[in-house]
Amino acid sequence: MPKLLALDTSTDACSVALYLNGEVREDFRVIPRQHTKQLLPMIQTMLEEAGIKVTDLDAIAFGRGPGSFAGIRIATGVAQGLAFAAEIPLLPISTLESIALSKLQTGDTQVVAALDARMDEIYWAAYRSEAGLPIAVTPERVDAPVNVALPDGTLWCGAGSGWCYLADMPESVQASVTVSSELCYPTASTMLTLALRDFAAGKAVSPEQALPVYLRDDVAWKKKGQQ
């Protein structure tokens, strides 16, 4: 069995998880603006308690986005630094796919994962369950809520902070989506499940090839009146 570490800082939550000997350990905390200070100590404690070092790992998974620009940079930078030093590969994992998997694990079969992208936009993608894992029905996108469009004639579970904009979405979307939780975060533990799939499929990449996914390049734009 591979030894995998996963980490995510793409939202207000910060999480670290370890897959070792078929078991998962996780440290999950909602700590806005504290990721830079807390992530490395969380990783160190996780590894020390398990009695292993970074060099013992087979790969490191990380939340590559979309999400908070600063948060994605933190996770990517830490994962790359650790991987370079230990000479091990990385597994970039979609934050939206992680959210979708968390709902599939509770019995839902169709999930639209959405994160608040600020600037009156959301990051979103739709997934269906196949053998218990999420399969993308739409590409990952950044859109104004009014531009969200889903396949007709089916019902969806909505999860993630982006669903705070449900009232601004088209009536067809409002009629076909049941929002189970706006506070559903991407987590390192669900990323481990996706990382195990990708590791087995040979999708691990070198640190320099593991890039963040922002979906939006205009990071400096601010809403009128925003300080």
Automatic annotation (TrEMBL):
Gcp-like domain segment(s): 32-148
GO MF annotation list: transferase activity
Coiled-coil blocks: none
Q: Which UniProt keywords apply?
A: Cytoplasm, Transferase, tRNA processing
| GO cellular component terms listed in the entry, alphabetical order | cytosol
Stated name of the protein = tRNA threonylcarbamoyladenosine biosynthesis protein TsaB
Annotated GO biological process: tRNA threonylcarbamoyladenosine modification
The similarity annotation says: Belongs to the KAE1 / TsaD family. TsaB subfamily.
Q: Does the keyword Transferase apply?
A: yes
Q: Does the keyword Transferase apply?
A: yes
Q: Where is this gene product found?
A: Cytoplasm
The protein's predominant localisation is: cytoplasm
Q: Which residues form the signal peptide?
A: none
Q: Which NCBIfam families match?
A: T6A_YeaZ (TIGR03725)
Entry-linked Pfam families? TsaD
